[in-house]
Write a structure and sequence with these properties.
A: mainly alpha, 15 helices, globular, disordered N terminus, B: MetI-like fold
Chain lengths: 300, 281
Amino acid sequence: MVTPTMTTRTTARPTASRQVIPPPPLHVRRARHLPTLLLVGAAAAFLLPLWVMLAGSLKSMDEIRHGSLLMPPLRPTLQAWRQAVDALAPGLVNSLLITVPAVLLSTLLGALSGYALAFSRWRAGSRTLSNLLVLAAFIPLQLFIYPAVLGLAWVGLFGSLAGAVLAHVVFGLPLTTILFKGHFEQLPLELLRAAQIDGAGFARIFFSIVLPVSMPMCAVVMLLQFTGIWNDFIVGLVFAGGENQPMTVQLTNIMGTTFGERAYNVEMASALFTAALPLLVYFYSGRLFVRGVLSGAMKG
Amino acid sequence: MRERMVEGLFIAPALVLTLVVFVGTMVWTVGLSFTSSRALPIGHWVGAAQYVRLWNNARWTASVENLAGYALAYVLLSLVVGVLLAVLLDRQARFENAWRTIFFYPYAVSMIVAGLVWQWLLNPVVGLQSLFGGAGFAWLSNPRLAIYAVALAGAWQSAGLVMVIVLAALKGIDPEIRRAAALDGIPVWRMYVSLLLPQVRGALVAATLLLAMAAARVYDLVVAMTNGGPGNATELPAKFVMAYLFVRQNVGLASAAATMLLLAVALLLAVGWAARRAIGR
């Protein structure tokens, strides 16, 4: 009887509930607002960093020096944003040039591999491979980085955009493969059987049946990969090379090079600018993102 | 026969990548940890000497100690806040999507940005400190507290993940259980502590495991927030590996450190696997 859901549930079964449940005692009725209060407090704490970034990025240094961190900008100015956009524009371009191909490739290859693993006739082999992929998805990148640097240098891709894309695709494949495999295994087998009887081959079934009905899953995986790759620091730092650094790496460079007083307003604008695209995508497609993270987390 | 070929083509990317890239590079790194390689991977075999040097290296032992403090604070804080939020949202049917969006958005923010924001918040000059009469928030300049400041930033990012995982599990519980508990007049908090949370222990174990593994490889956050300081107070193993690979040019020692990370993650996975078997899920 404490929340609306309980009430609807009990009224759905009127026979038992009416007489048995006593009216809630006073302290329970008073406590009814406690959850909401807690939620509001928690929400304020969680939103604080975002607010501080947004407000700070619109202030002048003078206002930051003399005002409080939490105050809204009293004389909003885009000065800091102009500087941040100028400084980070090359990083934005690099981030896009790395993220877009890496997301598309790691999703497509993950779908192919996941399909093969889900429907391969070589059961034992595909199970072993899947387990190895789960392990690979959890091992820290530090284990692979040095040999990967040597390997990419050997094929002449180290320190290039293509090298960073390749590294992202390889490091992302375990997760995308596992996600697609899990998804494909839930597809109705009759659909595939019928196609097989009609004479369609392994590849034909994939491209004309499995992939078209899996578009929502593709969206989920692409969303996860986009967020992960855009927010990546270590791959961009190590593999992209000096002129091709993505936004996250450039952001740390900006922070490190200011002499004298730190331009907090420019720093906040730069940080928000770097976080803007994943945040917009998240706020726009929150549910899909949650679904992706959940299925990714539960495979572990 | 043709069918088999096509199938092989499909399985090839997964097979080649897992075997060559992941297993191969991992074995390579572990192998390097037994050599005297410095800037180039051409050292000769030195047995376990790098491991002896590693555990006699003050920066490494400090990193391991810091990681223990970080992991404990980060995992506990994320779990407590995440579970609490999940329970609150489980009770609160209204605006659930909006609440969830707010608590989960930090997960979509890069660790670099998260580290920078929290660095400002805890900055003694412009941060929260100035709001509270200049006391209590100078964590980042205090060598004893700095690592917990980093853990706080990490938990801000991950609590939403715990919430999402636990909330999904709570929603999956048979509604009969809640109904029975409500009929018995069990207080709400008792219902969660003794009935519902034990039901979702599989999700709790999974969340704990994910957090622990995220803690073991944390790198970006500390680079953005403290860069290891003050002193060695927030140095961490993953950062140690990067420093000895690319700055100190000591591939052998870095590989030994990376191998320790691998052992830690393997141990966590084994513990998680055993825990899952123990609770029968």
